Amino acid sequence: MKKEAYKKELLLRSVQRRNGSDNYYKEVMKIQSWLTLFSIWNPNSGTATAIDGDFGPATEKAVKNFQQVHQMEENGYVDQHTFNVLTLNLKEAFEKPLFEDTVRGLLIEAANNHLMNYPFELEIRKESNSGPWVRSYMDGNEGNLWYWCMGFVQTIIDQVWSHLGKDFRTMMPLTYSCDTVGNTGLQKGFFIAIKPSGRIRI
Which positions fall inside the Peptidoglycan binding-like domain (predicted)? Predict the structure, then answer.
């Protein structure tokens, strides 16, 4: 894979806990983001929490609730093992082997792998298009201006092309612009523009 920003989302710098001396603001926000993401598809889990970088009693309770759901020791702190469980969906989406034998089949398989793992964005500090999934698709970028649709599409193409031993950048540039991809495809002959009823479709 050429788009490997997701790997940073799987790692925890150090054990994070309530009032911990080794707590790091961004690491706590990552944990809070994953706890909140988990609550979206498990609304009764009690894991939703503010994403503010402060590992206080509410975050500790959310961690304990997450640990309870997974039948883990309910100690309220997050080490790499607990974080691995928190981020398992992301790892599955990006690293699950592909088995289909056609390009079309591989693209559908890869896309389904992501969709089945709930790739949701978050709103963090009034910024939409935020969170670990967005950063993974957008090479570390996030926020209101970072629409992640093309980042998602290129990630799927990257996975398939890498599976086939190819570099997707020979087909299109690494970009977050649908227009850039469309224009490049037209220039290289990958796309064909037709003009029915006065409208151009790609």
Answer: 27-86
